[in-house]
Amino acid sequence: MDWQLLSLSFITVFLAEIGDKSQLAAIALSGSSRSPQAVFLGTVTALVLASFVGVIIGEGVAAFLPAKLLKAGAAIGFALLALGILMKPED
Amino acid sequence: MRYTSVEFSSPKSVTVTEPLPPIPDPVDAAAIAPPKRGKTFWATCTSTFLTILLAEMGDKTQLATLLITAESHQPWIVFAGAATALIATSLVGVALGWWLARRVSPKVMDLAAAAMLMTVAVLLLWDIVGM
Questions:
Q1: Residue-wise pLDDT tens digits, B102-111
Q2: What percentage of residues in chain B have a pLDDT greater than 70?
Q3: Contact B72 A2 (CB under 8 A)
Q4: Domain containing B39: what range?
Q5: What is the pLDDT of residue B33?
Q6: Domain membership flag for residue A69
Q7: What is the reported pLDDT for B34?
């Protein structure tokens, strides 16, 4: 087991993600949701899957993924979630 | 109907009766709550999963892991390190949101959450412009 490589990967990704978009989204979604566990499960699955794809496909990933299009889709998704929170019925 | 009764033994016996406030039936509440919560759970989980997956594809974390993999040729160790870090940052984020929701009113929390999600959307658009 290469502990140095493991800790390098951990520290790099941890520092990149602290205070980043996904974490902001996780704070907002869990704070306004009735089930923070669902937000945690969704966040972790998405992040781990994204890094799995990055590791497995390697350098090819940047070439074939339409990253701009995906990000635009995500931007629309987050905007819709924000509107959904603002317009959710009082209960 | 249920009554509480308080008895005074001296100097002469007086009985005070007062109706108890209605107690909600626990069986009824349990029968209504789970389906609603179940639906919310999976809807929340799916919308969170999809938006974050789209946002993270081709993002800097993914690029960092693929660069470390390309240099080390040990994808599983890199994946283990990255996955642990991502679980940790998600846990911190969700815990922070949960903690905040317990301290501010739901209205303020919803406004703050909507503002944060809009910020995330703008940051993503900013990323696209810079790509």
A1: 999 999 999 9
A2: 70
A3: yes
A4: 3-46+73-130
A5: 47
A6: yes
A7: 46
DSSP letter (8 states) at residue A88: P
Residue B117 has pLDDT above 50, yes or no: yes
CA of B5 to nearest chain A CA: how many angstroms apart?
37
Domain that holds residue A22: 3-86
- List the single best residue of B36, B47, B120, B126 to mutate versus A (max A Cβ within 10 A): B120
Residue B66: list chain A partners with CB under 8 A: 54-55, 57-59, 61-62
Question: Cβ B56–A46 below 8 Å, yes or no?
Answer: yes
Backbone angles phi, psi at B5, to 5 degrees: -130, 130
B110 or B71, which is more confident: B110
Q: Which of B40, B47, B48 to mutate to test the interface with A (most CBs of A within 10 A)?
A: B48
Does B16 reside within a domain? yes
What pTM did the predictor assign? 0.77
State residue B60's pLDDT score: 85
In a domain, A91, yes or no: no
Please report the DSSP string for B65-86 in residue order.
Answer: HHHHHHHH--HHHHHHHHHHHH
A41-80 residues touching B, CB cutoff 8 A: 41-59, 61-62, 65, 67-68, 70-79
- Read off the pLDDT of each residue in B9-20 and give the average, rounded to a whole number: 62
Tell which phi-psi region holds residue B58, choosing left (phi > 0), alpha (psi between -120 and 50) or beta: left
- Residue A58: pLDDT above 80? no
Q: DSSP assignment, residue A91?
A: -
User: What is the count of structural domains for chain B?
Assistant: 1
Closest residue on chain B to A39 (Cα): B45
CA B92 to CA B80: how far, in whole Å? 18
Is A7 a member of any domain? Answer: yes
Domain membership of residue B124 (yes or no) is: yes
